Amino acid sequence: MLERDGYIEGVPCWIDTSQPNPQAATEFYGGLFGWEFEDVMPADSPMRYFMARIRGGDVGAVGSQSGGQAAAAVWNTYVWVDDADAIAEKIRAAGGEVLMEPAAVGDAGRMGVFADPEGAAFSVWEAARHKGARIVNEPGSLNFNNLNTRDPEGAKAFYGAVFGWTTLDWGGGSSAWLLPGYSDHLEELNPGFKKGMAEMGAPAGFEDAVATLNTITDDQPAHWSVTFAVEDADETAAKASELGATVVVPPFDAPWVRMAVITDPQGAMFIASQFVPENKDLPADASPQAAAA
Fold it and tell me: Domains in the chain, please, with CATH?
């Protein structure tokens, strides 16, 4: 698999999970995905931040909750930006909220925390030493970031103004977020990428996909979620259950994938997704995205 060494502006680049008991969370995710961890916080710090790695490459992190956070754990999405302060101004102008002004995180980079007009929280990352996830789209690593919203048209206006995203509707209340031109960057990193997508039968435009947009209809708040690639969705769901997780939606087939929705032992929800090319012609309304939201 191709390893990343940085991203371009507007691409989700990092994930971490805030947990009441981060040490216990490392045991769960290490057992589920085979992640190896390194606590990068000083020994005398009351906060923990465990970098998760596959083959020595960063895939995400498990950290302590900051003051005032709810008891339930959550997975957080970070979007790569060139200038966090400039993006903060765009977010304000587009009707979003600044939850934490951009600030330095040691020599790793600068981050800010924001919420879109419907309240879905996300972070931005202006990289210095830390270049985001090195390993993505292989089993045990990030596959997609997902915005779950009750107001898709409002979300399109907001994220379009902030990051330049457009959408590709694939039915069933779900769309792909596209960053126009992103596929050119991927082609430079991996020559033949565009041809491979076309030969696979991917929908036109999907080569620019950076995230998903899912419409929710129940009373849960708007939020960002994460999808991990797995080799076998059924085995992953069974293993997660053995490790103390709750399988919210058992594995089922959808276009291109077989996936399950899982809540870890401390309450952070995620999707486990197995790529199944044979499922590409399943109807769009078979998509699990609404259930996964």
Answer: 12-127 (3.10.180.10), 142-292 (3.10.180.10)
Angle between helices 233-242 and 22-33 (to 10 degrees): 140
Joined together, the tokens standing for residue 2 give 């191709």
The answer to whether 113 and 121 have CB atoms below 8 angstroms apart is yes
**Phi first, then psi: what are they for 267, rounded to 5°?**
110, 0
What are the beta bridge partners of residue 148? Answer: 214, 223
pTM: 0.94
**Distance (Å) of CA 218 to CA 115, 121, 267, 293:** 20, 18, 19, 10
Q: How far apart are CA 289 and CA 216, in angstroms?
A: 9
Instruction: Find out whether 248 and 53 touch, Cβ atoms under 8 Å.
Output: no
Give start and end residues of each alpha helix (H) in the chain. Answer: 22-33, 84-93, 152-163, 182-189, 193-200, 233-242, 289-292
Query: Which residue in this structure is represented by tokens 């969370």?
Result: 25
Look at strands 74-80 and 121-127 and give their pairing: parallel
Long-range contacts of 51-54 (CB under 8 A, 24+ apart): 52/26, 54/135, 54/138, 54/140, 54/141
Strands 174-178 and 36-39: unpaired
- Could you report the average pLDDT of every consecutive run of 10 residues in the chain (293 residues)? 88 97 97 97 92 97 79 92 98 97 96 97 97 96 96 97 95 88 92 89 90 90 97 98 98 94 97 93 60 48
292 CB neighbour count, 10 Å cutoff? 26
